Sequence to fold (487 residues):
Amino acid sequence: MATLRRSIGLRQGVALYVGAILGPGLLVLPSVAAETAGPASLIAWFALIALSLPMALTFAALARAYPLAGGFAAYTERAFGPLWGAVSGWLFFFCIPSGCVIVALIAGQYGAGAFGLGREALYLIGGGLVSTAYAVNLVGLRLSSRVQVLVTAGIVVLLAIAIAGAMPRVDVAAFTPFLPHGSAAIGLAAVQLFWAFAGWEAITPLAEEFHDPARDMWRATLFAVVVVGVTYGTLAFATVGTSAYGDALQGAPPLGVMAAASFGIGAQLAVGIVGLFVAFGAVNAYIAGTSRLGYALGRAAQLPRWFSALHTNWRSPHYSLAFLFAGFILWLAASYVFGLTVADLLPISTSSYIATYVLSMAAGTRLLSGWGRSAAWVGGEWEAREVYLEELGVAGAVGGGVEDGVHVVEAIFGAEGREEVALAVGHEGHVETLLHVGDEGGVEVGTATSWILDFGFWIFDCGCGGGLVGVEEGLLAGVGVGVEVEG
Fold:
């Protein structure tokens, strides 16, 4: 059987990691967080930058120990068996086509907006950008990774110019009051920013194509953490310091306002250019990794064997790429015909990403030792806290918005991989109590905070109908678990 060609060095690895993390969200998230928590949103940014390190290091340690094209799916299989490895791979692989449509819609919106074009142009620009990424990956990772280096360098340079131009306009008065919406708003801002730090898993399936995965994946991860942290941190600081959020934007993206001041062009055109670069970098990295995941699943007979075929000349998994591209075209057509928006498509990808991260961190605690296991544990605890806040409806977990009554956090993996269920009790808009129901019927009671810290279970949203389910006829049901309650 033909094997993948080793064509990724340190420079290409850094570019792929940075491109996967710096998605289109960086164009709007700084202002969204600033509107939510004011200047205190910087605490959320810098906390998440610090907490992303153990998660990134866990993936790097796993890739260094098991440099396989299956990536996170291979780690999950080694930790929990073939079934869970296959499920992990399937969830991610089959969700990528719809995820590519999300990127296409976002890129199309920025591109069409920059030139004042309509809906048809939006789909043509977005669809063309993603199709180009597929074509580049078909020709081979050697070309794809080189293009990624150029795109990532362009992103960093454009952002650096925009941020540098904004720094002289930073006003100390913009940082007061520091907590205009209270300390609880920091937690809400952190939830909003969580997915700005997703993407470390997408590069792990490329491990077999690194020249020296044991050395370069580790180094590439560390360099990428620094680049991502500095980029996000300085952008957030400039956004708050120049008050580039809220009513001051007058509907324009915050980065566009700063870029326009630096480049001397219209805000829409500036953000459109940056947006297209960022979107291509993200989708190119994800397509590269996911096509290799399909190749590995075919090689393991967890998908049809033809997924593992490689192109004769380019040594790219062309059937895996063709399948993903066909799925993308179908989802894009459905979006165009039925008016599916980013909000409609996002839950599909979100569920698979949560599953990937939770299972990978759990695999890390089982497969790694020493500092690697510690990093996986910290990463898992962070994932649990963030997903937990999202499952409870964001605002409710930090001070409001949860309906009174009992809610089910749908599926939880305990420390030993058991399926368990937790009941969240809402009162006057707050989550006050959590009841943890064990697999042997025991019940533990804790607050919303102590439950995460003391019990240490990971919340897993399998996409089976939402994270919170109301009480219906006295029955509360989790995944594979049902418990009767009175009334």
Notes: Residues 441 and 483 are 9 Å apart (CA to CA).
